[in-house]
Specification:
alkylglycerone-phosphate synthase activity, alpha+beta, FAD binding, Alpha-Beta Plaits, 17 helices, FAD, 4 domains, FAD-binding oxidoreductase, five-stranded antiparallel beta sheet, FAD-linked_Oxase-like_C, 17 strands
């Protein structure tokens, strides 16, 4: 095996991973890369690895930012990266039930290309969309940017097929069931620790004929979150509903030509906007009439909160550039910037307290830093917060610099919100899992792992 092939599948895309790839520290590399071509071959690989005590790290798009695909071997004699990219087929489409079965190695863009030939789409568009895979979406309980309209990935899953060291495991036979706990949700989010997902049956939707994205500005964070809460609780959310705080809004709008004009600044001040928070909303539907109706529902709710429309140009600019973050991060790192993200979620009553606590923890640890935050997903009961952090890189200990900051932020999150809303547990969040699900919850997961993976070969060191 060419060393570069093993190195390419040794880690994900977190800031720490990228630092190590730039020579700031070492990281484990798998002893081999195995590329099965179908679910039966995946099953055979696991049975062989179980007999020889070899660890198995499932690898799809490699976009984990929490150490979920790091080539840890734990107490195993060796570890392989199980690359699933050859599992790239659309297995079936049921246009009546609107269910499609996709293999685990299909990427987001390829899934939409395959489904479009049948008139369907997933509508699942996280920032990792360009590289991440169907199996990865399921294994991490991914949330797409349009999940207010299409649902989180777990909401789309109607069935799942897994390979385990104990044999193949298939789940999901009907749209709903009372046959005990829904074990699909034990497989979804299991991060490769309870089995290797090989196929996923998914609810699909017709390809939208119309897409409309707009930008609004509301005055202040508290007012903005109140507006988004009202949208969620009155079932008037757009498919994409994204609210940036003042700090993030200043950066986002400064990069847009229209914000540079004094006329727009004067206009916002005249409309009573002193602390601008950018709100991106986007609707997708089968017709102009449907989108117009839904847009009217949204704007009617926004009106009492003083939302000022600043046009489709900004909304479309965000839609076109929403996958550019990773490339921007590389450029910032080239110039000595520590740039990383973290995310969480809480009920509405605690949301601002959570934002303040995380900001305070990061500031206390990093000192001078730009800390930006936005509501990335909204629900009737609460919302997720997504933080982006930029500060001067500590050249003496860059990995330790972010490790300390992330630990402080995680401690601030614990007891207020979830340790992860959509990035999963991996290695980074594992120390905080018991604090969220309790020791009994951890024991339940350990028992499930022992049932399907008695030798403990699946993704060592992750989740548990």
């Amino acid at each position: 095996m060419v060393p570069g092939e093993r190195l390419a599948r040794a880690s994900g895309l977190s800031y720490s991973d990228l630092l190590r790839r730039r020579g700031f520290g070492d990281f484990p590399v798998p002893d081999a890369v195995v590329l099965p071509g179908n679910p039966d071959e995946v099953q055979s690989v696991l049975e062989i690895c179980a007999r020889h005590d070899v660890g198995v790290v499932p690898f799809g798009g490699g976009t984990s930012v929490v150490g979920g695909v790091s080539a840890l071997r734990g107490d195993k004699t060796a570890v392989i990266a199980l690359d699933l990219t050859r599992l790239g087929d659309l297995v079936s489409v049921d246009p009546v039930s609107r269910i499609a079965v996709l293999q685990a190695g299909v990427t987001g863009p390829e899934a939409d290309r395959l489904l479009a030939a049948h008139g369907f789409t997933l509508g699942h568009v996280p920032q990792s969309y360009e590289r991440a895979t169907i199996g990865g979406f399921a294994a991490t309980r991914s949330a797409g940017q349009a999940s207010s309209g299409y649902g989180r990935f777990e909401d789309m899953v109607s069935g799942v097929r897994l390979a385990t060291p104990r044999g193949e495991w298939k789940l999901g036979v009907a749209p709903a069931s009372a046959a005990g706990p829904d074990l699909r949700h034990l497989a979804i989010g299991s991060e490769g620790a309870l089995g290797v997902i090989t196929e996923v049956a998914l609810r699909v939707r017709p390809v939208p004929e119309v897409r409309r994205y707009e930008g609004y500005v509301v005055d202040g964070w508290e007012n903005g979150t109140a507006a988004v809460r009202e949208l969620a609780q009155r079932h008037a959310l757009a498919d994409v509903t994204r609210l940036s705080d003042v700090e993030e809004s200043e950066v986002s709008l400064a990069l847009n030509d229209s914000w540079k004009t004094k006329a727009l600044r004067r206009y916002l001040r005249a409309r009573g906007i002193s602390s601008p928070c950018l709100l991106i909303v986007g609707w997708e539907g089968a017709s102009k009439r449907e989108v117009a109706r839904r847009r009217q529902d949204t704007t009617r709710v926004l009106a009492p909160f003083g939302a000022v429309r600043i046009g489709r140009t900004l909304g479309e600019s965000w839609r076109r550039g929403r996958f550019s973050g990773p490339r921007q991060r590389d450029a910032l790192m080239d110039n000595g910037v520590c740039v990383e993200t973290l995310e969480t979620a809480a009920y509405w009553a605690e949301l601002s307290d959570l934002r303040d606590a995380v900001r305070a923890a990061l500031t206390a640890t990093l000192g001078r830093a730009i800390i930006m935050c936005h509501v990335s997903h909204a629900y009737e009961t609460g919302a997720s917060l997504y933080f982006t952090v930029l500060t001067a890189r500590d050249e003496a200990d860059p990995i330790g610099q972010w490790r300390r900051a992330k630990a402080a932020a995680s401690e601030a999150i614990t007891g207020i919100g979830t340790i992860t809303h959509h990035h999963a547990v991996g290695v980074d969040h594992a120390p905080y899992l018991a604090g969220e699900i309790g020791e009994i919850g951890v024991a339940v997961l350990r028992a499930a792992k022992k049932a399907v993976d008695p030798a403990g070969i699946l993704n060592p060191g992750k989740l548990l």
